[in-house]
Amino acid sequence: MHLLHILGWICWRLGHRGRRALAQVVGWILSAVALGRKQLTVQNLRRAFPNASPAELARRSRASFANLVLVFEELLATPFLTSDQLRSYFRFTNPELLRDALGRERGVILWSAHLANWEWSALVAALEFERPLLVVVKEQRNRVVNSWLDRVRRTTGNILVPMFRSARAMLEHLGQGGVVALLGDQAADPRSDPFVLLFGSPAATHKAPVLLARHSGAVLLFAYCLRTEDGCYEVFFEPVPGAHDESVPVEEVVAHYNRLLERAILRAPEQWVWQHNRWKYQPRTSQSSNHET
User: Fold this and answer.
1) Is 258 exposed, middle or buried (0-12, 13-18, 19+ CB in 10 A)?
2) How far apart (Å, rounded) are the C-alpha atoms in residues 213 and 227?
3) Relative to the CA of 33, which of 8, 164, 179, 240 has its CA 20 to 30 Å away?
4) How many CB atoms lie within 10 A of CB 118?
5) pTM over cut 0.90
6) Closest CA to 126 of 180, 89, 163
7) Treating both helix axes as pointing N-terminal to C-terminal, what angle do 2-33 and 54-77 enclose, rounded to 10 degrees?
8) Nearest to 119 by CA among 278, 273, 276
């Protein structure tokens, strides 16, 4: 824990330009030594950029590693920043969309993704809209890191709930007109979640946000942020069509989320977490299904 505190002080003192420069160096090193993860990253990038040259894929891979390092550096620096300083890094492009949704007093679900600094965006959203977010998180195996990360994620008053014990807490929070934040861009359960296309390949994608919106009546918004050249972040909100229309299959709404996600990623490809094994599950073919039966 003391080491994390020291590293955090260093990252704070570096400022955003220094952190960005350091992230480029460390990202390059990680890309060079984590060969298995680099291979997966390039493989994933090829799905989105099938015509890209090996050199272009390698460049995008290094940039993606640097983005991950920068997110971690900014998290480390968070305890040394005031709320006003955190807030100064962000611009909300269309905040009225969320404010109008909150005005309906039925709760709001922010269906987000691992783009740019998703951790900071949750912290700053609580400041911008003056209410805590209930954030569904995946607990870390290392207890020291998990404890530290929990404290950082609660910096601006957000409420954390573990992924596998979240249903009741989310419904109660939405029932009080609150905001729930969910990250929906990583591999879902292939046994219960639908396979929908993401960059042309089937990907098991979480349907829980749609089911939760229909059950609770909460507004469902796609939310994401992107880093700008000056080191700041822009936050965007978009409605998810068909979220409450029972005549629209859940799978179709989930597919629309993936289309929104694709469009957001392509605006700044290096800012998505390509290192995740997003396509590790694939639907069984009818031939293999018949063989098993």
Assistant:
1) middle
2) 29
3) 8
4) 21
5) yes
6) 180
7) 180
8) 273
Cα 268 vs. chain centroid, distance in angstroms?
14
Q: Whose CA is closest to 98, among 226, 210, 239, 233?
A: 239
The answer to whether residue 23 sits within a structural domain is: no
Which residue range forms the structural domain that includes residue 166? Answer: 84-271
In a domain, 238, yes or no: yes
Q: Are 111 and 240 in contact (CB under 8 A)?
A: yes
pLDDT tens for 115-165 read: 999 999 999 999 999 999 999 998 888 889 999 999 999 999 999 999 888
In a domain, 122, yes or no: yes
How many Cβ atoms are within 10 Å of 212's Cβ, its own excluded?
22
pLDDT digits (tens, 9 = 90+) for 198-257: 999 999 999 999 999 999 999 999 999 999 999 999 999 999 999 999 999 999 999 999
Q: Looking at the 3D structure of the chain, how many domains does it have?
A: 1
